[in-house]
Amino acid sequence: MSEWKEYKLGDVAYVQTGPFGSQLHLSDYKLTGTPIITVEHLVDKRIGHTNTPFVSDEDRERLKKYTLIPGDIVFSRVGSVDRSAIVSTKENGWLFSGRLLRVRITDIEVDPLYTFYFFNQEEFKENIRRIAVGATMPSINTAILSSLPILLPPLAEQKAIAGVLSALDDKIDLLHRQNKTLEAMAEALFRQWLVEEADESWEEGKLGDEFIITMGQSPPGESYNETGKGIPMYQGNADFEFRFPKNRVFTTDPKRFAEKFDTLISVRAPVGAQNMANEKCCIGRGVASLRFKLNTELYSYTYYKIRYHMLEIAGFNDTGTVFGSIGKDDLWNIKTLFPSVTEIMEIDSKLKPLNDRIISNCFQIRSLEKLRDTLLPKLMSGEVRVGVK
């Protein structure tokens, strides 16, 4: 640890603000050209590639001081000021907007990836939030970011630490990409079966005839806690993630329950987000659960049947005076086709391997994320050391 030294970020990196409004206007954006990223593109510590605006070759040259290269780290300048992402080879040559700050390492004895993981410690994030200026809309600038302390071991150890953490993140990213592929395959399989291969003998019925529908009810406010007492409680869209909700709030006085692998949907604005319960849980008034009436093991069929109807369910966002919502009668009365139980079991047997692989991947992702988040502060403080070749 005697070789570890503390520096100000500005001693080892150059912090640059993106182009201000006078340099770049909305009217300058094009449909093709060089992508320019803003806060919305900082997704899961990486640069998102969806809905990026573009600038012309002329503007790219004019704004070349705002070019990104691999290893650059970009921060949100306003709002979520602890939000950051690292630039990969895929974004080489892209530009960044005035709502971002770019950190470019200038010291050859500092590893950019290690620095990025240092920025992702909760202690560092709290420090940024604490010193951000502005009561209504927190913001940071080059001076604030440059003044923050960073603890640096020798370069070889920096690279070893970054290697351990990036290996975990790469595995997590691979599992996320696998899940998206598996989800698309399952959706396509179900739609083909229900639409293209539908049997003329199938009758039309209603969701309430096929599924047990439980509308959530919120427990008393005094029963809420974030310390794990009682059972997990889900209130709606804010708790939902890719497949399973995150355990954010617990209750010691649950009123309505969902069972493991029940399908969950958000029934209050926004209506239509979908998840699956990964354990017995409490559902608040913003959530409904659905379970197949005749065989609770057919959770894969249930999940993709509800997913098939999700556009119709989400249409209830347009109802109501202020906020969209869907009631039990509305949900119950949605029209659907009724295959025979034998046919349902057949399609479930095809969906189940895909769905169970997604479920297994989700559990593995959470386990890896927990390991990474536990290791991160220990590695960055020297409490846990890694071997250096």
The percent range for strand residues is 15-25%
Radius of gyration: 25 Å
Total discrete domains:
3
Number of continuous helical runs: 11
- Report the count of strand segments: 22
The shape is globular
Which CATH architecture of the largest domain is right?
Answer: Alpha-Beta Complex
Based on helices, strands and strand pairing, what is the structural class? alpha+beta
Overall mean pLDDT = 94
Largest sheet: 5 strands, mixed
Assigned CATH class of the largest domain: Alpha Beta
Poorly predicted residue ranges: none
Order of strands across the main sheet? 14-16-15-20-17
Q: How many angstroms does the end-to-end distance come to?
A: 17 Å
How much helix is in the residues? 25-40%
CATH fold label of the largest domain: Adenine-n6-DNA-methyltransferase TaqI, Chain A, domain 2
* Quaternary structure of the protein: single chain
What does this protein look like?
This protein is an alpha+beta fold. It has three domains: 5-152, DNA methylase specificity domains (Adenine-n6-DNA-methyltransferase TaqI, Chain A, domain 2); 153-177 and 342-389; 203-338, DNA methylase specificity domains (Adenine-n6-DNA-methyltransferase TaqI, Chain A, domain 2, Alpha-Beta Complex), CATH 3.90.220.20. Helix content is 36%, strand content 20%. The protein is built from eleven helices and 22 strands. The protein has helices at 9-12, 57-62, 112-119, 122-131, 142-146, 155-196, 207-210, 299-308, 310-314, 328-332, 341-381; strands spanning 5-8, 13-17, 34-37, 42-43, 46-47, 54-55, 73-76, 84-86, 95-96, 100-105, 149-152, 203-206, 211-215, 224-225, 231-234, 249-251, 257-258, 263-266, 274-276, 281-283, 287-292, 335-338. The strands form seven sheets. A five-stranded mixed beta sheet has the order 14-16-15-20-17, with no helix packed on it. Strands 2-10-7-8 form a four-stranded antiparallel beta sheet. The chain has a four-stranded antiparallel beta sheet with strand order 13-21-18-19. Helix 3 (112-119) crosses helix 6 (155-196), helix 6 (155-196) packs across helix 8 and helix 6 (155-196) runs antiparallel to helix 11 (341-381). The longest helix has 42 residues, at 155-196. The two termini are 17 Å apart. The model has no long low-confidence stretch (mean pLDDT 94).
